[in-house]
Amino acid sequence: MQTQELIMSSSSQKLEESVATDMIHKITGAWVSQAIYVAAHLGISDLLIEGEKHVDELSKLTGAKASRLYRLLRALASVDIFTEVEPRKFSLNEHAEYLRSDSTHSLRSLSMAIGDEWSWQSWGKMFDIIQTDKLPLEDLYQAENAYAYFAENPESNKIFSNAMTDFTRNTIVPVVLETYDFSDVETLVDIGGSYGALITPILIENSQIQGILFDLPQVVNDAGTLMEEAGITNRCEIVSGDFFISVPTNGDAYILSQILHNFNDESCIRILKNIRRSMKEDGKLLVIQAVIPEGNEPCFNKLLDLELMIIDTGAKERTENEYREIFQSAGFHLTEILSPSGPVSILEGTCS
Fold first, then answer.
1. 244: exposed, middle or buried (Cβ count in 10 Å: 0-12, 13-18, 19+)
2. pLDDT over threshold 70, residue 26
3. Which fold has domain 2-100?
4. Can you give the pLDDT at residue 2?
5. Class of the 171-351 domain?
6. Is 267 exposed, middle or buried (0-12, 13-18, 19+ CB in 10 A)?
7. β-pairing, 345-351 with 284-289?
């Protein structure tokens, strides 16, 4: 009996230590995030494309202090980002490849956006955010919200837009292309489509579609490169404007990817009503967003919902019922939710 109690006590202690270690990793996760940001900002992965390099050479190429750069890369290698192939000499590995700027699956801009000063400083105010409705950007930069900050800070705006392009390519495009049938769509309007990371592959896969890419002037001024590379500039018109005022007319499908979660319910309804007035009566509304599930299962988008707290006061991820109410208030009927368990879902709406 005593032996059995000792075994159970030992197992319980090991379990407790394992849980504690896991908790420590979660608590210190920001260390890893910021270390990735620094490596991305320095362009380390780009410098290793042609092969391994000694930290002294990387120091000369980046202007970073060699001893501190080594400690950074050693730490990242310990979490499987880069590989120390010989003492003080590093190479790319599977994870570090995603920090290359030339990769079609690059996440470099996403890591730079997460580590950008405005984001990092805002997360430092999370305690205040939870207690009040005030955005930290107001005190930190006298900006009403993230978009007002971007309007005054073009470099951060470019990083954020590129980050959204990275996120779209890696998570949204595969879901949309594998899940939705665009065969009956002739004119597709991408509302808030940034640089065209979503509409471009849709047009490539569906040769019958004519596209319209719609976003703010400061965004679409840099759009077009992806379409030129894909050879579809003759099939997609780039239009600038403000979706709170109006959107292009006569589309038979309107797609909004990762747009509505940036705004409060009233603003979402206003955007959707503008689309409802502009689209054909038999048109389709396609909202690409996470749908927050019930329960305690792991869900990346429940954490992304916290990030939205620093974007704008009304920004949030929503449940299925919350989206149904918004659709109904704007004159749409939510007909179907595709890929409900994926990183994002496709919420299809028709005019009601």
1. exposed
2. yes
3. Arc Repressor Mutant, subunit A (1.10.10)
4. 62
5. alpha beta
6. middle
7. antiparallel
- What's the CA dihedral at 143, 144, 146, 148 to 10 degrees? -70
The proportion of the chain whose per-residue pLDDT surpasses 70, expressed as a percent, equals 95
Residue type, 304: L
Q: Any idea which residue has 């608590």 for tokens? A: 27
What confidence tens digit (pLDDT) does each residue in 161-178 have? 889 888 888 899 999 999
Environment class of 65 (CB within 10 Å of its CB; exposed 0-12, middle 13-18, buried 19+):
exposed
Q: Render pLDDT for 245-256 as a digit per residue (tens, 0 to 9).
A: 999 999 999 999
Q: Which residues contact 174 (CB under 8 A, 6 or more apart)?
A: none
Question: Quick check: 345 and 336 in contact, CB under 8 A?
Answer: no
- C-alpha 172/C-alpha 197 separation (Å) is 10
Kindly give, in sequence order, each residue whose CB lies less than 8 Å from that of residue 65, ignoring residues fewer than 6 positions away: 59
Return the DSSP state at 253: E
Q: How many residues does the chain have?
A: 352
What are 318-344's pLDDT values in tens digits?
Answer: 999 999 999 999 999 999 999 866 789
Please answer whether residues 214 and 239 qualify as being in contact, where contact means their C-beta atoms are separated by less than 8 angstroms.
Answer: yes
Among all residues, which ones are annotated catalytic?
Answer: 261
Residue intervals of the chain classified under CATH 1.10.10.10 are: 2-100
